[in-house]
């Protein structure tokens, strides 16, 4: 039996929008290299960056019925996260569903399967990260769970967790840790600003990161060209 969970808790959009200021790589590092979705999920157009609350949805292979159910549960600031119960590359999602999601304030789609109508989605400016692009259509016969915990592209996602996605990929931040991860991302970004300036001034990463001693310990030696 499939179920839909109503009135799930979400992360405040003030925190979500603050996390949107940081790239996926920064957030992934800030939360100790956790939460990254598999690299097979790629944006259908670039450049793009978005953050939102996870609206979770399971779909049967070749069946997008549950996506229509998920639209009803959508709230402004959500990102729809869809995973098939068995691997499938069919085109679950296109222009019409995107139009419906936009009307509900949904910011993007993350799907470990296929999408179609890519030209129209790009013209609309509706961000999508998908496993593939496929014109194969789907049926509406088997309902799946909506707004329950899922695993999408190897990442555990619960309703209301924060999803951040950009040109580099997709990462999830648990709603309980969102404030702490935001603080860590701010600190990491400040540190990178300083290092970026030092690198621009000609300093070497070898010296900034104090790599020379460790390299020597690992057996790296230097010699002059033409030496014996």
Description of the structure:
There is one protein chain. With 228 residues, the protein is of the alpha/beta class. Helix content is 32%, strand content 23%. The protein contains eight helices and ten strands. The strands form two sheets. Strands 1, 2, 3, 4, 5, 6, 9 and 10 form an eight-stranded mixed β-sheet that branches. Helix 1 (13-19) packs parallel to helix 6 and helix 2 crosses helix 6. The longest helix has 23 residues, at 178-200. The termini are far apart.
Which key terms come to mind for this protein?
single chain; 228 residues; alpha/beta; 8-stranded mixed sheet; two-stranded antiparallel sheet; 10 strands
Which helices and strands, and how do they pair?
Layout: H1 13-19, H2 24-30, E1 42-43, E2 49-59, H3 65-73, E3 78-84, E4 91-93, H4 95-103, E5 108-115, H5 118-124, E6 128-133, E7 150-152, E8 155-157, E9 162-166, E10 169-173, H6 178-200, H7 205-208, H8 212-217
Parallel strand pairs: 2-3, 3-5, 4-5, 5-6
Antiparallel strand pairs: 1-6, 2-9, 7-8, 9-10
Helix pairs in contact: 1-6, 2-6
């Amino acid at each position: 039996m499939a179920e839909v969970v109503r009135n799930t808790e979400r992360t405040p959009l003030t925190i979500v929008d603050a996390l949107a200021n940081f790239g996926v790589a920064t957030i992934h590092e800030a939360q100790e290299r956790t939460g990254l979705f598999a690299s097979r999920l790629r944006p259908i157009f670039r450049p793009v960056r978005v953050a939102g609350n996870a609206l979770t949805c399971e779909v049967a292979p070749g069946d997008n019925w549950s996506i229509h159910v998920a639209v009803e549960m959508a709230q402004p600031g959500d990102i729809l996260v869809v995973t098939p119960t068995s691997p499938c590359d069919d085109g679950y999602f296109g222009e019409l569903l995107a139009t419906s999601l936009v009307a509900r304030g949904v910011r993007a789609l993350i799907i470990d399967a296929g999408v179609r109508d890519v030209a129209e989605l790009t013209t609309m400016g509706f961000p999508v990260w998908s496993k593939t692009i496929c014109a194969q259509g789907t049926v509406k016969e088997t309902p799946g769970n909506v707004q329950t915990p899922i695993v999408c592209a190897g990442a555990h996602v619960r309703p209301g967790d924060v999803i951040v996605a950009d040109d580099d990929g997709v990462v999830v931040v648990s709603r309980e840790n969102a404030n702490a991860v935001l603080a860590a991302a701010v600190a990491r970004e400040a540190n990178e600003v300083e290092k970026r300036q030092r690198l621009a001034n000609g300093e070497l990463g070898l010296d900034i990161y104090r790599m020379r001693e460790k390299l020597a310990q690992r057996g790296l030696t230097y010699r002059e060209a033409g030496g014996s």
